[in-house]
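1st attempt posting a full record on here, be nice pls
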Amino acid sequence: MEHLQAYRAAGGGKHRASKSAETRAIGRRLLIAAAVLFAAGIANSESKAQSGPFASLAGTWSGAGTVTLDDGSTERIRCRAKYAPIGPTMEMSLTCASDAYKFNLGANVRAEGGAIAGSWSEASRNISGALQGRGGGGNYELVASTAGFNANITLKTSGNKQNVTMRADSQFRGASITLAR
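the predicted structure (as C-alpha cells):
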C-alpha cells in the first residue's frame, strides 16, 4: 500500500498510465497528424492542378449529341469527356458512341499565352496527328490534322455546361455534343 501512495504522490496524485498506453496514445496522435498533413498535401496538389489555362475544364463531363457521316446521315451519340489539367498542360479524352458508331479521341495539349499546341489520337481508327489553336477560359478553337484529315473543333464552356462541335473533311463530317458536369 505504501508503494501505491508513493507512486501516486510522484505522479502528482494521479495514477500514471502504463508505458504501452502512453506509446499507443503518442502513436495515435502521430497518425492523426500524418493524416492531416497528407490531406493538406492532396488539397494543395489539387489546387495546383486546378490552376492554369485549362482549370475550368477539370473533371469528368457527360452528355449527348449527334454525329454526321459522309452520306449526310446523322446518329444520336452518348459521350463522356475527361479533362486532366496540370498547370499549362492538359490530357483529355472524349469517347462517344451510338448503336452503330464510336470514336475515342485523346489529346495532350500545352498552352502558351493564347496559343495551344499538342497531339491527338483516335484509337478505334488508329490515327493521330497535330492539334493547334487558340483560346482560354474554357473556350477554344482548334484544328486537328493528319495526312488526309482535318477537323475544326470548337469547345465552349459556361459554368457546368459545355458545347463541343467538330467539322471534318472526311467520312466523319462532324459532331455536335452538349456535355455537363
